[in-house]
Amino acid sequence: MRILTRLLSVAALVVVGWACLMSWPAIVHGHPAYAVMLALTLVVALLAGALSFRAGEPRRGWRLALSVVAALLAVVWLVALWWLRPFAAVEPALSALESTSTVVVTETATAILMQPGLDPLDTGIVFQPGARVDARAYAAVLRPLADAGYTVVVPKQPLGIAFLATNAFEGARDAHPEIARWVVGGHSLGGTVASMDAAEHDGDGGAPVTGLMLYASYPASDLSGLSSAVLSVSGTLDGLATPADIEASRADLPPGAEFAAIEGAVHSFFGDYGPQPGDGVPTITHDDARSQIGQVSLEYLRSLESR
User: Fold this and answer.
1) Residue 39's domain spans which residues?
2) What pLDDT does 306 receive?
3) Is residue 195 a contact partner of residue 167, using CB atoms and an 8 Å limit?
4) CA distance 235 to 262
5) How many angstroms separate the CA atoms of 280 and 268, rounded?
6) Contact 166, 177 (CB under 8 A)
7) How far apart are CA 279 and CA 277, in angstroms?
């Protein structure tokens, strides 16, 4: 068991080092939960490795069984830590986070806020990132919405999992009482959670959800009776939320839902975080796709003003 403990300690140090090397900016700017996991793993690995060199009686019976169970849990922990490594934001998303006279960008440990500096509208947007994607990666695609007067909130999800940030919308609404109505949206898994928010807060008495904006995403349940206006934007070459998946989602969305397909776009084009395993091969540039996504989104948001 001492040799196994040392091997696991080394493996833990390798995983922590690899995660920091590959995604340090995303770890620093992300929700603190993953950073805490890394720090805890580092401390336990160093401590366990050091203790494995102490002399002692060989473990037998229940102590041996407990050690085996602990080793198995350690393997599961390390696999989870490896899988949870976030996709770090890249340009032009990073430049889009800079404040100007027209948009003030504020970043906290749990959210990114884009507030119009001039003539803000009374409609706000809460946008949930895709699984394990750095929240900053959506700054460039969402910045035009803030430029147009919409307050935009991008939650930083614990461990990069939208299902762990299901209270983000209510938190944003409480923090911004000046907003009269909300549009919830998200990319991939984030859109699925946004759909849950739309269903729960559809027709609320105060500051209700009046719109649902899905980027390469679809709901997990039947929302065909939703009163909110729905926009579904997808890529025709998406390898993860495939065109077939998007087509199948029509049955779960209201009859008046708007569908916009970006020809030649892929899953990772809805943010700026580099290529994603399992995705398709694009036939248009990322800049072209981002521009089209922003234009479609703006047209949709403006259409809500007349509802």
Assistant:
1) 2-83
2) 73
3) no
4) 5
5) 9
6) no
7) 6
Amino acid at position 7, single letter: L
Interior CA angle at 205 toward 202 and 211, to 5°? Answer: 35
- Provide mean pLDDT across the span 209-216: 97
What pTM did the predictor assign? 0.94
What's the whole-number mean pLDDT along residues 40-65?
Answer: 81
pLDDT at 158 over 70: yes
CATH number of the structural domain spanning residue 114: 3.40.50.1820
pLDDT, tens only, 58-79: 666 667 788 889 999 999 999 9
Q: H-type helices in the chain, by residue range?
A: 2-29, 32-51, 61-83, 139-147, 168-175, 189-201, 243-248, 286-304
Judgement on whether residues 74 and 6 belong to the same structural domain of the protein: yes
What's the chain's average pLDDT?
A: 95
Tell me how far apart the alpha carbons of residues 201 and 199 are, in angstroms, rounded to a whole number: 6
Beta bridge partners of 232: 214, 259
Pairing of β 181-187 and β 209-215: parallel
Encoding tokens for residue 284? Answer: 């248009």
